[in-house]
Amino acid sequence: MSRAGGAGPLAVLVGPPGSGKTTVGTLLAGLLGVEFRDTDHDVEVVAGKPIAEIFVDDGESAFRVLEHHAVGRALAEHDGVLALGGGAVLDPATQGLLAGYAEHGGVVVFLDVSLAHAAPRVGLNQSRPLLLGNPRARWAALMEARRPVYERVATARVLTDGREPESVAQEIRASIEQEQA
Ligand SMILES: Nc1ncnc2c1ncn2[C@@H]1O[C@H](COP(=O)(O)OP(=O)(O)OP(=O)(O)O)[C@@H](O)[C@H]1O
Ligand SMILES: O=C(O)C1=C[C@@H](O)[C@@H](O)[C@H](O)C1
Ligand SMILES: [Mg+2]
């Protein structure tokens, strides 16, 4: 299956940590019979180490440069489902790439989630450097600052509170199929 109107991912998932980009994206790709790709994974492959180590060794700005390149490559090469790192949309150049993709009929889904539902999902997991210390307070601050950006870059928003990842994936599949019909 390929996206109507040309090259590029069938869908791009954006949203904060714990919104389910990796989980829902993997399920959605399975439903659509396409490959799943995650820019967080791509960055780790290029850097040769986990994201937490990139933050410690090289700093967030070095991570963001790697991430921007990973998003550009994935948008150009990948024709399946693509999940972006939670903060990838902060980069103005990345916002420009997403706007171009959306202008050509691309689907950018904002996986939304409230603090009450996100907190238990991210828990005290040490793999998210921006949430270290007080994950709940950090997540809330990050989401407050980013919500307008997620809303701006997205072509659709799906609230995931209290929903099984499978149900979220099915809703996104239905909306993609509707657009392609
Ligand atoms: N709809 C959901 N309901 C309940 N739990 C969920 C849901 N979606 C994801 N989860 C759980 O929340 C945790 C985080 O999900 P996931 O890693 O997919 O988020 P993410 O958006 O990719 O985060 P990150 O930005 O850190 O990569 C996982 O343990 C996953 O099983
Ligand atoms: O929200 C963020 O800024 C991040 C989310 C993760 O997906 C990773 O990209 C990294 O931990 C930073
Ligand atoms: Mg993820």
Automatic annotation (TrEMBL):
Q: What is the lineage of its organism?
A: Bacteria, Bacillati, Actinomycetota, Actinomycetes, Micrococcales
Membrane spanning stretches: none
Family annotation (InterPro entries): P-loop_NTPase, Shikimate/glucono_kinase, Shikimate_kinase/TSH1, Shikimate_kinase_CS
Q: List residues binding ATP.
A: 18-23, 128, 163
Q: Which HAMAP family is this protein grouped with?
A: Shikimate_kinase
Annotated residues for binding of Mg(2+): 22
Family, similarity comment: Belongs to the shikimate kinase family.
Pathway in which the depicted protein is active: Metabolic intermediate biosynthesis; chorismate biosynthesis; chorismate from D-erythrose 4-phosphate and phosphoenolpyruvate: step 5/7
Q: Give the cofactors, semicolon-separated.
A: Mg(2+)
Subcellular localization(s) per the UniProt record: Cytoplasm
- Give the EC number(s) under which this enzyme is classified: 2.7.1.71
The record's subunit annotation is: Monomer.
Pfam families registered for this protein in UniProt = SKI (PF01202)
Q: Which residues of the sequence carry a binding annotation for substrate? A: 40, 64, 86, 146
Q: What does this protein do?
A: Catalyzes the specific phosphorylation of the 3-hydroxyl group of shikimic acid using ATP as a cosubstrate.
Catalytic activity field: shikimate + ATP = 3-phosphoshikimate + ADP + H(+)
Know the name of this protein?
Answer: Shikimate kinase
Organism per entry: Xylanimonas ulmi
Keywords, ordered alphabetically: Amino-acid biosynthesis, Aromatic amino acid biosynthesis, ATP-binding, Cytoplasm, Kinase, Magnesium, Metal-binding, Nucleotide-binding, Transferase
| Cellular component aspect of the GO annotation | cytosol
Question: Which terms in the Gene Ontology molecular function aspect does this entry carry?
Answer: ATP binding; magnesium ion binding; shikimate kinase activity
Q: Choose any GO biological process term that the UniProt entry carries and state it.
A: aromatic amino acid family biosynthetic process
Q: Report which gene this protein is encoded by.
A: aroK
* Top EC group: transferase
The record's remark on the cofactor is: Binds 1 Mg(2+) ion per subunit.
